[in-house]
Amino acid sequence: MSTTHSDPAAVKAADRAHVFHSWSAQGLIDPLPVAGAEGSYFWDYDGNRYLDFASQLVNTNIGHQHPKVVAAIQEQAGKLCTLAPGFAVDVRSEAARLIAERTPGDLDKIFFTNGGAEAVENAVRMARLHTGRPKVLSTYRSYHGATAAAINLTGDPRRWPSDSGSAGVVHFWGPFLYRSPFHAETEAQECERALAHLEQTIAFEGPQAIAAIILETVPGTAGIMVPPPGYLAGVRELCDRYGIVLIFDEVMAGFGRTGRWFAADHFGVTPDLLTFAKGVNSGYVPLGGVAISAEIAATFDQRPYPGGLTYSGHPLACASAVATINAMAEERIVENAAEIGEKVIGPALREIAERHPSVGEVRGLGVFWALDLVRSKETREPLVPYNAAGADNAPMAEFAAACKRGGLWPFVNMNRTHVVPPCTITEAEAKEGLAALDEALTSADAHTV
Ligand SMILES: Cc1ncc(COP(=O)(O)O)c(C=O)c1O
Known about the structure:
Strand content: 15-25%
Low-confidence stretches: none
Radius of gyration: 22 Å
Number of helices: 13
Helix content: 25-40%
Structural class: alpha/beta
Bound molecules: pyridoxal-5'-phosphate
Mean pLDDT: 97
Order of helices and strands: HEEEHHHEHEHEHEHEEEHHHEEHEEEH
Distance between the termini: 55 Å
């Protein structure tokens, strides 16, 4: 018997019986059956509509069910659903061209993957083969994916259960003035000390053993910490000095999220490799990839690249990327993200922070914002402890429930909520979501001291 779309009980029952969910204790979760989605909203079978301030997992940059992208997938499905990576395919060529046209500098060759983690795996492999060195440096406050190298590079506690301790990864502290690991009081101090710390880490690890430094250009899940002026240029300079490959992970920050095509565009710094996924086609069909510099690409001109995927450059995924990028350009969607961030979200969040004792700091750009929730603005003690679970996490769980009661689907991570709606969000929708957020924050205020 097949499950009909109008029977939420059957959807739920089959899910609980047969779907094994990511990152979860399977017996402790209660997935919401979703009936549909459009633009900035999705809804359940009971008529509850949610404004998606999380863009799912920060991937629906173009919103749900964009008609041009849906049509492109349908058209491609009618023409050619799949073809092995070894062939030249019109939509794959065009997707690569459109991406290369937008990536900074000479990152002009594209290796396609099915998602972000695979992009990171392949970027690291390219860096190791290009340099002949084993180690990779990444920051503690980071997320790079859940596969072998990617989870070892990840700084947050999701790494711990999979940490092999032998992956060749060394973690260091990136800049984060609000919770400065360097006791800095200004952005300039934070920048200078973070660069000195990185240089010392390189010196003590041995530069000749370091293949790459991988950074989220603007760290996402770990807290949307926009790097201080000069930091990324300083990292670029260190990489050049020591022959280290610089990888920017733009899986979350890329494709309009920060109000530019790539977050790197804000800083005028070009990495040697850039990983992308999510916003490249808003996840309508799984797609990710690595944009590769001319120099690294040349390493594999005569020598085979020892990596591949059956679905590398999948035609349905590439057709949706072509339609997404073209629609984003035609409809000024990246510009919209910048304008809404600057004129609506940023000012409103700063004003919210003044009124709510639980909001310690607001930071971000474009449609990429974090609210750091605290017990006290003075001590900056996080509203819940690092990696809190169960009762310890209750204040954040209550806050998330309050958002949902108000028709807002929030992004919540540790003691933070992120405001990461689609890049297509209108001013009226943003204001609606910000009002619901404002209201829900009173539940967090109740836990301040
Ligand atoms: C910066 C960054 N890199 C890599 C990944 C992993 O991407 P995926 O989940 O598509 O494997 C993510 C996912 O959130 C991410 O935010």
